[in-house]
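Hi support team,

I submitted a single chain yesterday and got back a structure, but I'm not sure I'm reading the token output correctly. Could someone confirm the output below corresponds to the sequence I sent? I've pasted both exactly as they appear in my results page.

Thanks,
R.
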Amino acid sequence: ARKYKPDRKYKPDALYVICYYTIDWRYFNNGIGISYIFNFFGIFLGIILVMTDKNGLSPHPIIHGVLAKITDIIRSFPMMILIVAIAPITRFFIGTKIGVQAAIFAIVIGSTPFATRMTENSLNTVDSQLIKMARSIGASNFKLYLK
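Hi R., thanks for writing in. Yes, this is the structure output for that exact sequence:
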């Protein structure tokens, strides 16, 4: 890392020093990438949970039960214990148990169930009359979830 050299000898630019030494932009960009990945998987799995619910558009109790249990089990682990618990899986997919990439993988696995439940709760708040009305004018399941 390069050393900070102030423009003026008598007054360093304090805000620049604070930002430069507290935010490492390489890891900040990784954090944004992490949030995109777990939100994508969370939304996808949340839609599947709502679709396969007993009151969903295509009920399938086995898929819903398995996916709901996996989501609940992963949500119940504290993040640091989960990182250690899935170390063999991380090593299989990433090739190492330590490092930034391994941490990103573990954080995505640990954070996805939270986004899944948020998506499921949001989709469950849609009024059933609205869904029936959309069905009556010919909307497909894909259109219902897209809109």
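A quick pointer for reading it: The chain has eight helices and no strands. Let us know if anything else looks off.

Best,
Support desk
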